[in-house]
Amino acid sequence: MKHTTVVAGLEVQVFTTDAFKTSTKPILALFVLHGRLGSTESENVRSLITTVVKAAGEHEGEKDLMIVAFDHRNHGTRLRSKAANLGFEENDNHASDMYSILAKDVSFLIDFLESYLFPAAERRVVEWGVAGISLGGHSAWMVAAADPRVTLVVPIIGCPDYLGLIEARATALGIAIGPPHFPDSLMKVLKAKALTALPYRSTAGENPFLGKKVLVLSGGSDPVVPWAASRAFVEGLEVGPRGSKEVKVFEGVGHAVGQGMVDGLVAFVLGDLACGRMF
């Protein structure tokens, strides 16, 4: 089932199983975010959503699944400038343009979506998750680090190290890491907001991934978001004894959502639905 609502001018699509309407179970709300140059109508996004919802409908769990999708800023129904979504070859502002749209609306929707969907508190979302493809995968990492309410994270062909990824992309094209492609003001923001995954026993600061369930799905032959850009962060990521981390790197797979990635996401979500309430 698909339901469309508008939250503060943002069109939001909600996908549920047929049984969801009459159920009273607690809810896992999973955002599924599309990639750059795509939208909620992209084939890989719709196929992924359809597959996960179908599997959830055939699965008896302790929680119900609700998938939430929306267009990233300057994409789909929100497109204002096609040029701003292009890479360095055609867009000097690529580093700024891509970073500035990442993950901006997920926490906003977590704040308000329940009041639109369940105004009389008919249902309760007890867990929030984010899965994303490419640009959506970058966003999944960022929102998981920034928002403690997000406890389930599935970056698909995405990267947690935006600065390292974008610098490598520029260097490969012979672009200097400095103005005009990398303004000083942008570099300050990127360095200040760079993700960290501190050891869970560290006294240096709080690790934002503690207790979270993380599934990383990457292509071993991805030329756009290479696994090498994510490896150090992911391998060093600590989620503590209450969290979980699973990493799947699919050899021979490029910048695409392979069947193994879809199967991995389905198994991960079904396993979470089988668990009881989370508060």
Automatic annotation (TrEMBL):
Hydrolase found in the keyword field: yes
Mind telling me which SUPFAM superfamilies this protein's record contains? Answer: alpha/beta-Hydrolases
Give start and end of each AB hydrolase-1 domain.
Answer: 50-257
Keyword set for this entry?
Answer: Hydrolase
* An MF annotation (GO) of this entry: hydrolase activity
Which InterPro entries does UniProt cross-reference here? AB_hydrolase_1, AB_hydrolase_fold
The organism's superkingdom is given as Eukaryota
List the Pfam families hit by this protein, alphabetically: Abhydrolase_6
Name the PANTHER family on file.
ALPHA/BETA-HYDROLASES SUPERFAMILY PROTEIN, ALPHA_BETA-HYDROLASES SUPERFAMILY PROTEIN
Query: What is the designated name of this protein?
Result: Alpha/Beta hydrolase protein
Organism equals: Mycena alexandri
